[in-house]
């Protein structure tokens, strides 16, 4: 349990609760949920430019990272097509993957197929079911994809000024503006209470909020004097109590609640908002193909990690279909901006390619 781990090292409850957010980030779990201590480890075991446990912003926004990868691939001969939806994986008479068929009917032939989509989309939607073992299909169907995350992107006309550390007279960003700011995290009990409300189908009345202002470090993301604010919030259930949909009224009601919380810490925040984009779990699934809205393509619980990700006997990136590989977050070692699953899958695929 993360709370037991944190109790061994720290005395300050606000510090313990803030650190505990990394044990539940993106997970429908509370700091009291057994096994969530691994999620804490997963988020602090990495490094950035040699600094262990460090995090960083991508210059130009997260899309710039995708563009950098695409440029590197194109420089080595890769052909990249966007807005070309895949209909299904093309299989030969021997059951091997031979490419993909696009939704417009175009066939793209290949000796190997690597899928960065989730295990559910890859194996339940894009692969002919008769080619997969029934127990494998059942396992993929049973993957826990619950997500508590609602992401709110905000445009503001001035820098938030927090009661705990008011802005400088010149309006320039201060050190805390250039870090992750955790709100409603004064006590681990608050996190557990927010989790409990969501398990009952109700968006948290006092949601956990991780607030970042990337434009404080990368001014090119917003016009001069303005900023973009990223609010990573939880807990929000995928399905609301009583089966109610996440309609515009429900979205806006929750976002208003989040903004009220931010306002308590930074008076004037609501008046500074000039635009917002609200992405609930169903929105994250529809727009980005994240099953259940889960940013990790499946919960990072101990029963869905290591040799069991995405399924026992298929944790080595190969699938029951020869020539079809899983290289996204649904494969080992799971989610996070690290590229480990893709790198490992590429090595396995290249090893098999040399044997063809």
Automatic annotation (TrEMBL):
<dbReference type="GO" id="GO:0005759">
    <property type="term" value="C:mitochondrial matrix"/>
</dbReference>
<feature type="domain" description="Amine oxidase">
    <location>
        <begin position="35"/>
        <end position="162"/>
    </location>
</feature>
<dbReference type="InterPro" id="IPR036188">
    <property type="entry name" value="FAD/NAD-bd_sf"/>
</dbReference>
<comment type="subunit">
    <text>Interacts with COX5B; this interaction may contribute to localize PYROXD2 to the inner face of the inner mitochondrial membrane.</text>
</comment>
<comment type="function">
    <text>Probable oxidoreductase that may play a role as regulator of mitochondrial function.</text>
</comment>
<protein>
    <recommendedName>
        <fullName>Pyridine nucleotide-disulfide oxidoreductase domain-containing protein 2</fullName>
    </recommendedName>
</protein>
<dbReference type="InterPro" id="IPR002937">
    <property type="entry name" value="Amino_oxidase"/>
</dbReference>
<keyword id="KW-0274">FAD</keyword>
<dbReference type="Pfam" id="PF01593">
    <property type="entry name" value="Amino_oxidase"/>
</dbReference>
<dbReference type="GO" id="GO:0016491">
    <property type="term" value="F:oxidoreductase activity"/>
</dbReference>
<comment type="similarity">
    <text>Belongs to the carotenoid/retinoid oxidoreductase family.</text>
</comment>
<keyword id="KW-0285">Flavoprotein</keyword>
